[in-house]
Design goal:
two-stranded antiparallel sheet; 4-stranded antiparallel sheet; elongated; alpha+beta; Arc Repressor Mutant, subunit A
């Protein structure tokens, strides 16, 4: 009998990936997929690649000389700006400002990806974001911070 598929949230899956990479020597995506499957989580290669990118995973030399995946213990802080840039380029359709708030429009289903990039980037003056299906509300400390962030989004290429 095949083992049951256990649905898991993206956040929980990424937390498990981060734990596995921090505690084990995993040198390939295939090996990581097998470990996740042992934990009852099935993912496609594309999903796993996105998860590794979101987590800021990189390869480093292990004491035994192998190249293994590593993640920073506090999360992908060094990779966060590139995640925001990637999602901003790919999904941002429009930006409107209302005082210290920005309303960002995306294609349906993409708002959470963009909000994740914004929140992880920890941009000075940006307090946080709230995502729906195709809209992200960004709340800034003040109107000047909102204007500066709006300008930085406009400059994404």
């Amino acid at each position: 009998m095949e083992e049951p598929f256990i649905p898991v949230t993206r956040t929980a899956r990424q937390a498990l990936i981060q734990h596995l990479l921090a505690t084990e020597s995993i040198s390939s995506q295939h090996e990581l997929r097998e470990r996740l499957q042992e934990e009852g989580i099935r993912v496609t290669q594309a999903t796993l690649s996105r998860d590794l990118d979101d987590l800021g995973a990189y390869k480093a030399k292990a004491p035994d000389g192998r190249q293994v995946y590593k993640v920073e213990p506090d999360g992908p802080q060094t990779a966060a700006p590139s995640v925001l840039e990637r999602w901003g380029i790919e999904v941002l359709q429009s930006v409107q400002q209302a005082g210290n708030q920005l309303v960002l429009r995306t294609p349906p289903g993409a708002a959470q990806l963009l909000a994740l990039g914004i929140d992880r980037a920890r941009i000075d003056g940006i307090l946080g974001s709230i995502a729906g299906d195709d809209t992200v509300l960004v709340i800034a400390r003040d109107e000047a911070a909102a204007s500066a962030f709006r300008a930085s989004l406009r400059d994404l290429k």
